[in-house]
């Protein structure tokens, strides 16, 4: 039969104290103030569709006009036979192979204001509409000590 000795109890007590000390030393510090970065992207998805697929393949020319500046941005897309329709994003990134641009090659931007758009097929307007980009404000919350 084993008999407990004070040495064994002292060893366990020291191990427990060491564990508590390690937890205290390596515990996370109080939260520091933190700054966050924020980004906002505004865009509009517009599209056209030959509902009954009567045209086969066709060329769709999208035209977006900023009403305040008069700048006109165009994007021409080929719609393959059997695809019927296509959606495009305005403004599109200038790094893309095809993007909305002015005659001088200036890429479209989501500048605040009112816009009109239309899609032409065979030189005729087939659909169109209006949209607007408003001023964008970003809120940044600073997390810190209270």
Helix and strand element order: HEEEEEE
Q: What is the spatial order of strands in the main beta sheet?
A: 3-2-5-6
Q: What is the SS-derived class?
A: alpha+beta
The main β sheet shows up as: 4 strands, antiparallel
Can you describe what's shown?
The chain is of the alpha+beta class and 146 residues long. Helices cover 14% and strands 33% of the residues. The protein has 1 helix and 6 strands; from the N terminus they run αββββββ. The strands form 2 sheets. The protein has a 4-stranded antiparallel sheet, with no helix packed on it. Strands 1-4 form a two-stranded antiparallel ribbon. It is elongated and about 95 Å long.
Secondary-structure topology with pairs:
Elements: H1 6-25, E1 44-49, E2 58-66, E3 72-79, E4 85-90, E5 113-121, E6 124-133
Keywords:
146 residues, 4-stranded antiparallel sheet, two-stranded antiparallel sheet, 1 helix
Task: Provide a compact summary of the structure.
This protein is α+β, with helices and mostly antiparallel strands.
């Amino acid at each position: 039969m084993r008999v407990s000795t004070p040495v064994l109890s002292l060893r366990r007590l020291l191990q427990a104290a060491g564990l508590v000390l390690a937890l205290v030393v390596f515990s996370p510090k109080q939260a520091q103030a933190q700054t966050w970065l924020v980004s906002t992207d505004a865009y509009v998805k517009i599209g056209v569709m030959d509902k009954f697929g009567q045209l086969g393949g066709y060329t769709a020319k999208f035209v977006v006009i900023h009403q305040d500046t008069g700048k006109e941005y165009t994007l021409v897309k080929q719609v393959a036979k059997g695809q019927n329709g296509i959606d495009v994003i305005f403004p599109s990134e200038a790094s893309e192979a095809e993007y909305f641009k002015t005659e001088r090659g200036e890429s479209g931007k989501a500048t605040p204001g009112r816009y009109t758009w239309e899609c032409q097929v065979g030189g005729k307007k087939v659909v169109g509409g209006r949209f607007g980009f408003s001023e964008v404000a970003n809120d940044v919350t600073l997390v810190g000590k209270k």
